[in-house]
Amino acid sequence: MRLIHWIYLTIVIVATFSASSSATVAVEILPMRDRAEFIDSILAKRVELLLPKLMNEHKLDMWVIISREYNEDPVIAQGITTANNNEPND
């Protein structure tokens, strides 16, 4: 009787793991251009929606960003999108 329980338990474990591995969802990785556009859109939404709310909440009137050449802050680099290889938007 104990042997039957062990066999049954083994079958249940194997069936569970094989079912879970076959149910994995394939994740599509975006191409570089689409990925850059997606990242830029997230940053733009954060600056437009989150930043004004936080500045009002903390009573800030001005936000100063110090930037050095070739070391742009992401907010400054927003005008220089990643989709066009950091070439300025004219």
Brief digest:
By secondary structure, the chain is an all-alpha fold.
Question: How would you characterize the overall build of this protein?
Answer:
With 90 residues, the protein is mainly α. It has one domain (2-79). It contains two helices and no strands. The longest helix has 26 residues, at 32-57. It starts with a helix and ends in a 33-residue tail after the last helix. The model has no long low-confidence stretch (mean pLDDT 76).
The count of strands amounts to: 0
Element order: H for helix, E for strand: HH
**Number of H/I helices:** 2
Spatial extent as radius of gyration: 26 Å
Biggest beta-sheet profile: none
Low-confidence stretches: none
What kind of assembly state do the chains in view correspond to?
A: single chain
Assign a percent range to the helix content: 40-55%
Shape: elongated
Please, what is the average pLDDT?
A: 76
Structural class of the secondary structure composition?
mainly alpha
Through-space gap between termini = 80 Å
Strand content: under 5%
Q: Give the total of domains.
A: 1
